[in-house]
Design goal:
32% of the residues lie in helices and 22% in strands. With 142 residues, the protein is α+β, with helices and mostly antiparallel strands. The protein is globular and about 40 Å long.
């Protein structure tokens, strides 16, 4: 696809179904929180860290940032396959980083599925090192 104009903005409640469609289209790995209700709750919290990229009225990218008062994190970075390699992912990451710096973040972390080579290469390219010292442990509460 030729390069097209796109813009970034905060997600709103009406975007939630389109974000879920984007994640499916981008073949993002499903999560237990992939529901309109969970995304609407995230939007309602209003922290300004749930961003989308839009081109021609269509959502083509998304990212969710997190801030716990100690460190920043990013989740669910996704770009529609036909819009990749246009700087959308890099711009989404840079904007979340900027917003988290303003809130006081000095360290960032991201979760990347081990088998997703393209994603691992992307995060390395934007300056994130693989921390071999850490394992992630998860407990589902529902």
């Amino acid at each position: 696809m030729d390069s097209v104009d796109w813009s970034l903005r905060e997600a709103c409640r009406e975007d939630c179904p389109a974000v879920l469609d984007l994640w499916r289209h981008a073949e993002a790995i499903r999560s237990s929180t992939d529901s309109p209700q969970e995304l609407e709750r995230l939007v309602a919290e209003g922290r300004g860290l749930f961003l989308v990229a839009e081109a021609g009225g269509r959502l083509v990218g998304s990212i969710i940032g997190g801030w716990d008062g100690w460190r920043g994190s990013m989740y669910r970075l996704a770009v529609a396959p036909e819009f990749r390699r246009q700087g959308i992912a890099r711009s989404l990451v840079a904007e979340v980083e900027r917003r988290l710096r303003v809130q006081g973040a000095r360290r960032m972390s991201v979760l990347v599925v081990k088998t997703e080579e393209e994603a691992r290469a992307f995060w390395t390219a934007v300056g994130y090192d693989h921390d071999r010292r850490i394992l992630r442990h998860v407990k589902m509460l529902d």
